[in-house]
Design a protein that fits this description.
single chain; mainly alpha; three-stranded antiparallel β-sheet; two-stranded antiparallel sheet; 5 strands; about 0% strand; rod-shaped
């Protein structure tokens, strides 16, 4: 069944095509006999085979003329040319030109155009010879010629006879609208093809396009602009579109259905009644040239600098306008256009804050906006889009304040951007004025170990945050920053922190102890501070801590305290000598005995008494004053005094020997140095030791016991 339907439709088409062909087009070798043997019946049924024609001697010539198109189905019309009372001569000549395919100029004047139109077959309207301005005008005006009209339009389309169309519109301007609407209904792609031709001038195309928008129904318009050629052309129009007021609404309706967006509306002025409709209907592309033109022409904004650097600020002065609402619905496009045209943006602060609250702007554009922004940002928290904070801080537009530092830190942490921001600020920081205690504490804990902060800013922050760091355990803090931490007592003095500082920052121990001495002293009560003793001794010497406090520390030290040939304050010396002396320091004390205070000397004497045997055995160096004081000391027995005296005789000169002999009551030996005197020496151990020493020192030449062994004889050296 379906095949039969298709065959029927195909036959209908072939039948119609045969009707529209000229007779000469139907005659072929295959159809010749059939066509020329045709018969005809009249009204009463009589059949004629045209034998009188076929028997004529000119029948072959007649066949030739018909076969080659010299005689056709219009022969009767042709014959009227020779008789009066029929068509006008001009009209007959036109018809003949169509038949003979000899086209006349399209502006050839016809007299009875309707009669001409009625005389032409449908197929004639497919020929170029039918292109006549008068004829086409009638076809357009009369609805009963729709088929013929469309055939002419179709041949214009197929054969690209655009010159005829242009000429017709110029000649028959009153038919312009009907021409456009008729063509658009039949030939949908008319504008696309006309605009691609390249030989049609711009003004014609502009008028043609505007006419389409003003008159063509919406259902046809959609098809006409299917490929967007018409809307693209309209969008690129730079000249004002001038139409009468009654056409404005239809134009706008059409433009809206085609999504028209005029690229450049700077030629429009408020005197043009279409201009407000273009603005209210958003029939323009969002670009800075269009936006600024509207601001200037419609809203009276005329400050070039503001329009360039504060464009969004200027726009926000007109919140209730169609312009502002249009831009709000297309912020992505607006910001993109703004950024292309602007090197610097100096919008008012409220405008900047409002912009970043909008969620219809992409992150990328917000970031690009910030890169060009020079408006100082008072509070970083006002910028709700925190992804832009890095660019705000890098661009140097964030106001330098403690609050901004804290808020940025809370959101982003102590980034390199924030460190640079802190370092570059000219204002002195004081976090005492801020209230965000939790954030401040977090900042403190992070910034303590941050060596990239300048020392100046580090001190300002540390000193005003006001926090302490218990159980301090951070390594590799710079020297200057450790000084700051200790200066402001940030590192609490506890056993853990003290131990860490001692191991990792020993050069800071002195200041650390000094500024936290009470706490240190308290720790020392339950801890042996042996490791710190050299430092404590230094601090005592420099009057940083008192002797009494140092002694309190020493009292809890179990080990030796080295003097290292250093003289300390009196009480310290006494304490060390009596409680913590190293045997390695005894030499120093004995040798330098003379330089010490009397109280210290007494301690050294006591030390000497304890080590008298070693002194006598010369295990320690001999100092005469030290020996003299020992000789004076009653606690030393007679035997040891004689032993000390022997050392004096051996090491010192005669006068020193005399003085020491007097101290121990050996006046008889003193007399030996006076040649006039003859002292006697009883035979005993002391005298023997002394005489032996005198002889060794060559104070006497010899000595011996007398016969009774009661006294020693001695012999002096003879005078030379």
């Amino acid at each position: 069944m379906e095949d039969l339907k298709q065959q029927k439709n195909r036959l209908k088409i072939e039948k119609q095509e045969i009707k529209e062909r000229h007779l000469s087009q139907l005659i072929t070798k295959d159809t010749e006999d059939e066509i020329f043997s045709i018969s005809d019946k009249d009204a009463i049924g009589r059949e004629s085979y045209f034998n009188e024609v076929k028997g004529n001697d000119y029948y072959p010539l007649l066949k030739y003329l018909i076969w080659n198109g010299y005689i056709d189905e219009t022969y009767n019309d042709y014959m009227t040319y020779f008789y009066e009372g029929g068509m006008k001569k001009e009209d007959k000549m036109f018809l003949r030109s169509v038949v003979e395919h000899r086209a006349k100029e399209p502006d050839y004047s016809l007299k009875d155009v309707k009669k001409v139109a009625n005389s032409l077959r449908s197929i004639d309207f497919d020929q170029e010879e039918s292109l006549n301005y008068d004829l086409f005008e009638v076809l357009l005006k009369e609805d009963n010629y729709v088929s013929s009209r469309n055939r002419i339009i179709n041949q214009i389309r197929i054969k690209k006879n655009y010159d005829f169309l242009v000429g017709f519109v110029e000649k028959k301007s009153k038919c312009f609208t009907k021409t456009v609407t008729s063509i658009c209904k039949f030939w949908r792609e008319n504008f696309d093809e006309l605009s691609r031709d390249g030989n049609i001038n711009f003004n014609f195309l502009s008028k043609w396009a505007i006419e389409i928008l003003c008159y063509v129904p919406e259902e046809d318009l959609i098809e006409v602009d299917k490929n967007k050629g018409l809307s693209d052309f309209i969008n690129k129009q730079k000249m004002q579109i001038m139409i009468s007021d009654e056409l404005i609404d239809h134009f706008v309706k059409s433009a809206l259905s085609m999504d028209i967006k005029l690229i450049d509306i700077r030629s429009y002025h408020k005197e043009n009644n279409l201009f407000p409709k273009i603005i209210d209907s958003n029939l323009y592309e969002i670009s800075m040239k269009n936006v600024n033109h509207i601001l200037k022409e419609v809203y009276g904004e005329n400050l070039k600098v503001e329009m360039k650097t504060k464009n969004f600020t200027v726009l926000r002065r007109h919140l209730d306008t169609s312009l502002y609402k249009y831009i709000q619905d297309n912020m992505e496009i607006y910001i993109g256009a703004l950024l292309k045209e602007t090197e610097e943006i100096n919008d008012d602060y409220d405008t900047v804050v409002a912009l970043f609250k909008q969620d219809n702007i992409s992150d990328n554009l917000k970031q690009e906006y910030v890169k060009k922004l020079i408006t100082p940002i008072t509070s970083i928290n006002d910028i709700v889009y925190d992804e832009s904070w890095e660019y705000i801080i890098r661009n140097g537009i964030l106001v330098y304040s403690e609050e901004n530092i804290l808020q940025y830190f809370q959101k982003k942490g102590l980034t390199q951007d924030l460190i640079t921001f802190i370092n570059d600020g000219q204002k002195e920081l004081d976090f005492n004025l801020t209230e965000e205690d939790e954030i401040k504490e977090d900042l403190f804990l992070i910034i303590v170990s941050e060596n990239n902060i300048t020392d100046e800013k580090y001190e300002q922050i540390i000193s005003t945050l006001g926090y302490n760091y218990p159980k301090f355990d951070i390594e590799e803090i710079s020297n200057t920053k450790m000084n700051i931490l200790i200066k402001y007592r940030v590192i609490l003095m506890d056993e853990s922190s003290l131990s860490f500082i001692r191991e990792n920052y020993f050069d800071k121990m002195e200041k650390y102890i000094q500024l936290n001495f009470e706490e240190y002293l308290s720790i020392s009560e339950n801890n042996d501070m042996q490791e710190d003793i050299p430092l404590i001794l230094k601090m005592v010497s420099n009057n940083i801590i008192s002797e009494d406090n140092a002694i309190k520390i020493f009292n809890n030290v179990s080990g030796e305290i080295r003097l290292n040939e250093t003289i300390y304050p009196e009480l310290i010396m006494i304490c060390i000598i009596e409680e913590h002396l190293s045997v390695d320091d005894i030499n120093f004390l004995f040798e330098k005995y003379v330089i010490f205070t009397e109280n210290v000397k007494r301690s050294i004497i006591n030390l000497g008494i304890k080590n008298i045997d070693q002194i006598i055995d010369r295990e320690f160096p001999i100092n005469l004053e030290f020996i003299i004081d020992l000789l004076k000391y009653k606690a030393i027995d007679r035997f040891n005094k004689i032993s000390l005296m022997l050392l004096v005789i051996e090491d010192y000169d005669q006068q020193d020997v005399v003085n020491c002999l007097k101290l121990i009551g050996k006046m008889e030996f003193v007399k030996l140095f006076d040649p006039k005197l003859r002292p006697k020496f009883k035979a005993n151990r002391e005298n023997k030791q002394l005489l032996a020493a005198f002889m060794e020192k060559e104070y006497i030449q010899d000595y011996s016991l007398d016969e009774k062994e009661e006294y020693y004889h001695y012999k002096r050296y003879k005078k030379k």
